[in-house]
Amino acid sequence: MQARKRHNANPSRPLDIERAHFLLSIFDSLRLFFPRPYLCLFDSLALINFLAHFNLYPDWVFGVMAEPFEAHCWVQAGGIVLNDTLERVSAFTPIMYV
Q1: Residue 26, in any domain of the structure
Q2: Can you tell me the distance from the alpha carbon of 54 to that of 96, in angstroms, rounded to the nearest whole number?
Q3: DSSP label at 79?
Q4: pLDDT (tens digit, 9 = 90+) per residue, 76-98?
Q5: In angstroms, rounded to a whole number, what is the distance separating the alpha carbons of residues 77 and 59?
Q6: Total count of domains within the chain
Q7: What is the pLDDT, as a whole number, of residue 15?
Q8: Is the residue at 48 inside a domain?
Q9: How far apart are CA 62 and CA 95, in angstroms?
Q10: Does residue 81 belong to any structural domain of this protein?
């Protein structure tokens, strides 16, 4: 993921948030055809790959919470969370960005 992002993303051009939100709505509607319970790792990986097909390379963020221990991941562009809520991810301490 990092190599693909490094090779294709243009760091001088910020991610087009409007286009990302439009594609996210398409991704969400297609998600209905894969009736599997939500798993943050699977959904984030699928979204990262989906957006890469349209030359968008947001960050894949992994975070943890200490008490009680919990791990979570999500996709974000800058300070904008794409596949979760800011309220939920704010409870986690990011430990890795891909």
Answers
A1: no
A2: 24
A3: T
A4: 988 899 999 999 999 999 999 99
A5: 6
A6: 1
A7: 81
A8: yes
A9: 6
A10: yes
**Quick check: is 33 in a domain?**
no
Range of the domain at 80: 2-10+38-97
Q: What is the pLDDT of residues 10-56, one digit of tens each?
A: 776 778 889 999 999 999 999 888 777 778 999 999 999 999 999 99
Please state the separation of Cα 65 from the chain's center in Å.
18
- Please tell me whether the overall predicted TM-score, pTM, comes out greater than 0.70 for this model: yes
In order, the DSSP letters of 9-77 are --TTS---HHHHHHHHHHHHHHHTTS-----HHHHHHHHHHHHHTTT---EEEEEEETTTTEEEEEEEE
Token pair belonging to 73: 């991941």
Of 2, 52, 7, which Cα lies nearest the Cα of 27? 52
pLDDT at 38: 78
Residue for token digits 């800011």? 86
The distance of Cα 44 from the centroid of its chain, to the nearest Å, equals 5
